[in-house]
Specification:
alpha/beta; Rossmann fold; L-2-Hydroxyisocaproate Dehydrogenase, Chain A, domain 2; 2 domains; binds nicotinamide-adenine-dinucleotide; binds (2S)-2-hydroxybutanedioic acid
């Protein structure tokens, strides 16, 4: 058994929290040999804290051997204390008819306080993953508050989009999802995102050699992946939760597994034609547990450049809206 990992989770009494905590506690995120200490941070609201207590009772009732301790709190200084990982889920989800950017005003401010608290009390090498929407720009806000925890330790989740992209290509090609790889997401976690099909593979072949319907790839495919969150809200009346918790489990597990190639949103540093000010989904390779490098050598087609320009424009707009919040 290795040393326990301290995992701070915000929004643990919410929809995603309910699916996520079981994944972490059962060993699916950090592996079957890694004990966990759960540090659960909710808002100081009687109903939310009572719901959290119920979730904690359920985790206890699972009798998971990897769970060493569970801390419940509404104080960020307690919730993030010595955290090795901070999973920032807690924030308002959108409802029908809203875009994720509509959440910036309500959610953006959360990440100012949480970024400061993480920088003050978390492990100096804490890895922070932002799920709360709009997640790219919330990660930018949180990371900007940090002087001690490096900006590169902050990532935002586009893995749900990557998984959606993979599933849609598998369905179209009539193959199992395990045959599909390199379904990288460029840009924002929003309908403007670009699921970059020219780099995707199906088995040993390029996906574009297996699926030759260019009109579908450039049209319905990009649109289905980009608008999948809204389709789920329309169908369920609530935003995706189990698939989001699953994607976060994949994001963290692959970020801890050297050699894994996957998509995460990071500070763009001006790569692939993005503005250096924005946080964008990019293809990365994990180089060591919790460390990654952006894969820089994909050649962009004219269609890729056009799609990246569109999602970049939206991200620049989000940056302009929140720049007064940046530390
Ligand atoms: P939810 O409303 O069910 O739960 C949110 C929880 O967060 C609530 O328990 C609430 O009390 C808590 N919370 C709010 N502010 C907090 C704060 N400052 N500190 C700690 N806890 C706080 O929402 P949900 O369905 O679990 O979704 C959470 C967020 O995740 C939303 O912003 C949603 O849009 C986003 N999301 C992102 C993705 C993605 O792919 N990046 C996917 C799905 C959902
Ligand atoms: C999703 O993609 O399902 C989430 O970001 C929730 C949403 O608002 O779409």
């Amino acid at each position: 058994m290795s040393k326990p990992v301290r995992v701070a989770v915000t929004g643990p009494a919410g929809q995603i929290g309910y699916s996520l905590l079981i994944r972490i506690a059962s060993g699916q995120m950090f592996g079957p040999e890694t004990p966990v200490i759960l540090q659960l941070l909710e808002i100081p609201n009687e109903k939310a804290l009572a719901a959290l207590n119920g979730v904690v009772m359920e985790i206890q009732d699972c009798a998971f051997p990897l769970v060493r301790e569970i801390i419940q709190t509404s104080d960020p200084m307690v919730g993030f204390k010595d955290a090795d990982w901070a999973l920032l889920v807690g924030s308002k989800p959108r409802g029908p008819g809203m875009e994720r950017a509509d959440l910036l005003k309500d959610n953006g401010a959360i990440f100012v306080g949480q970024g400061k608290a993480i920088d003050a009390v978390a492990s100096a090498d804490c890895k922070v993953v932002v799920v709360g929407n709009p997640c790219n720009t919330n990660a930018m806000i949180g990371a900007s508050q940090c002087k001690r925890v490096p900006k590169t330790n902050w990532t935002a989740m586009v893995r749900l989009d990557e998984n959606r992209a993979k599933a849609q290509l598998a369905l179209k090609a009539g193959v199992g999802v395990e045959q599909v790889s390199n379904t990288f997401i460029f840009g924002n976690h929003s309908p403007t995102m670009y699921p970059a099909f020219p780099f995707a593979r199906i088995g040993a072949r390029k996906a574009t050699e297996v699926i030759t319907d260019k009109e579908w790839l450039e049209g319905a495919y990009c649109e289905t992946v980009g608008k999948r969150g809204a389709a789920i809200i329309a169908a369920r009346g609530l935003s995706s939760a189990a698939s989001a918790a699953n994607a976060l489990t994949d994001h963290v597990r692959d970020l801890n597994t050297p050699g894994k190639i996957h998509s995460i949103a990071v500070s763009s540093e001006g790569l692939y034609g993005f503005s250096p000010n924005v946080w964008a989904g990019m293809p990365v390779v994990t180089t060591a547990p919790g460390k990654y490098q952006v894969i820089k050598d994909f050649t962009l087609t004219e269609f890729c450049k056009k799609k990246i320009a569109g999602t970049n424009e939206e991200l620049v707009g989000e940056y302009e809206t929140v720049k007064h919040l940046l530390g």
